[in-house]
Amino acid sequence: MATGSIFCFFFLAVCSWSGTLGGVTTTTPFLAVDVGASPELMCSYSADFSNPRIEWKFSKEGYKSFVYLDGKLTEPYKDRAQFFNTGIRLDNVTPKDNGTYTCEVVKGTAPSLIGKVTIDLLVRVAPSVPTISVPTSVTTGSKAELRCTETNGNPPSTYKWYKNEMLMPENPKSSQTFQNASYTLDAKTGTLTFYPVSKDDAGDYSCSAGNGIGSDMLSDVVRMEVKNSTEGERPGSAAESSQHLLKKSIGMILILYHTLQHETWKSDRSATTEEKF
């Protein structure tokens, strides 16, 4: 055991504490349960803690609060937790209960003695049906990005992609079926990227999300078509309309030019005839 000193400052008052760190332990420093479960968070302390004061605290991403203080459960927990012996039981846990729980024991008589232990709680949630985003038409040589996402799973889901109902490996070179494909697959983000796109990349795509809780969830199937980048503009396209307008404008200019030339010729011929007379 180690002896230490704690100094605290509150406005102009100065206080000091000297004591010994005592033995507080737990058999479950990490606890993973499914959503809706009622986990028991337990701690125990050594015999040299006489008349101890026990506190339970919760912390998560900078947020801190008391669970059990001054011999009773605090307001947020009084209707959904129980204190027994030195531990607490949480009822019907949700992902909001994910975090670190600290059991702190302080000896009630001199000499001072304090000890604490932490328990990390993970509330597991099965993934929901993932949302899939696939471009329906792309051109050869371009870049196509397909996305698969779901936000309910805890721990976060990893993703798999399927083309024409066939599982796509993360490394296409490891598969005889996909060894000529040029794609990258990120199983953590669910992103499937083709670059450059080839005609062989056309097909029906779907994805799945899984985190080890329950069954993997499958998305809808979306087809991606691939057309050659050299294919001409379809009838009625913007490019064709521009070309047609340009040709029409050039034609009108030529007609106007020839009309002016003809009028000039007529005028010159009339002037010549008058001179003869």
From TrEMBL:
Keyword Cell membrane: yes
Assembly: Interacts with the ninth PDZ domain of MPDZ. Interacts with the first PDZ domain of PARD3. The association between PARD3 and PARD6B probably disrupts this interaction. Interacts with ITGAL (via I-domain). Interacts with CD151.
Residues in the signal sequence: 1-22
Gene Ontology CC terms, in alphabetical order: bicellular tight junction; plasma membrane
Top-level lineage group: Eukaryota
Protein's name according to its UniProt entry: Junctional adhesion molecule A
Keyword Secreted found: no
Gene name linked to the record: F11R
Pfam families the record matches: Ig_3 (PF13927), V-set (PF07686)
Xref: SUPFAM superfamilies: Immunoglobulin
Family, as annotated: Belongs to the immunoglobulin superfamily.
UniProt keyword terms in alphabetical order: Cell junction, Cell membrane, Disulfide bond, Glycoprotein, Immunoglobulin domain, Membrane, Phosphoprotein, Repeat, Signal, Tight junction, Transmembrane, Transmembrane helix
A biological-process GO annotation: intestinal absorption
Membrane topology: Single-pass type I membrane protein
Cellular compartment(s): Cell junction, Tight junction; Cell membrane
Residue span, Ig-like domain: 36-120, 127-225
